[in-house]
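Lab meeting, item 3. Inverse folding demo.
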């Protein structure tokens, strides 16, 4: 009888030091296999460089990739601390469909009762989006925007076929625009939520190991 193949590793990518801190100090129990949390640096170019470098190593060559961190909500009625699970990520270079959106949304809802979980397209930008730009992006069908998720996932699938996903925590929204992360209640709320998401990521990763029919 042949031994079971080792589970594919999981690469969790975030951009900012505060996001990395939240993930490092969160609940890391229940991992379904080896995982690595990487701080890519801010912006799509930094994200693409970092993901290319990490997926080029032997240990992470076949890794599933999940982009996470904070985002700006685009839909009216969103609040800091809401969660966004991407159905796809998109930017001017193209779109990438995400795997397991429904499972991630379900697990996050179970893990964080009372927090609203939104699903839909997550768009990318090369700068911080504010004011009137939000309504323009919302008109394209996107529900949230960040600077790294689209570049992270597009780079990941171009390096090699693999499952990808993106989960973001809303740090500001049309009616709750923040100037600086961590200096007001909304930023603190988003940080606390991000500290709590790892078990849902691990459940998603575990589901990828099941035989596909």
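The presenter then showed the designed sequence:
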């Amino acid at each position: 009888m042949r031994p079971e193949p080792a589970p594919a590793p999981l690469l969790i990518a975030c951009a900012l030091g505060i996001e990395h801190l939240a993930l490092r100090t969160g609940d890391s129990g229940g991992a379904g296999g080896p995982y690595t949390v990487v701080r890519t640096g801010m912006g799509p170019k930094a994200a693409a460089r970092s993901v290319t470098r990490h997926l080029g190593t032997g240990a992470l060559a076949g890794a599933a990739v999940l982009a996470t961190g904070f985002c700006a909500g685009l839909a009216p009625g969103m609040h800091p601390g809401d969660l966004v699970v991407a159905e796809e990520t998109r930017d001017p270079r193209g779109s990438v469909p995400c795997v397991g959106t429904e499972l991630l949304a379900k697990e996050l809802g179970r893990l964080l009762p009372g927090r609203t979980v939104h699903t839909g397209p997550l768009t990318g930008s090369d700068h911080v989006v504010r004011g009137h730009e939000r309504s323009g992006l919302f008109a394209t069908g996107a529900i949230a925007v960040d600077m790294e998720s689209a570049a992270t996932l597009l780079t990941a699938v171009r390096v090699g076929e693999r499952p990808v996903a993106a989960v973001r925590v809303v740090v500001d929204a049309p009616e709750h625009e923040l100037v600086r992360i961590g200096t007001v209640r909304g930023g603190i709320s988003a940080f606390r939520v991000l500290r709590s998401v790892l078990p849902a990521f691990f459940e998603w990763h575990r589901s990828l190991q099941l035989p596909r029919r």
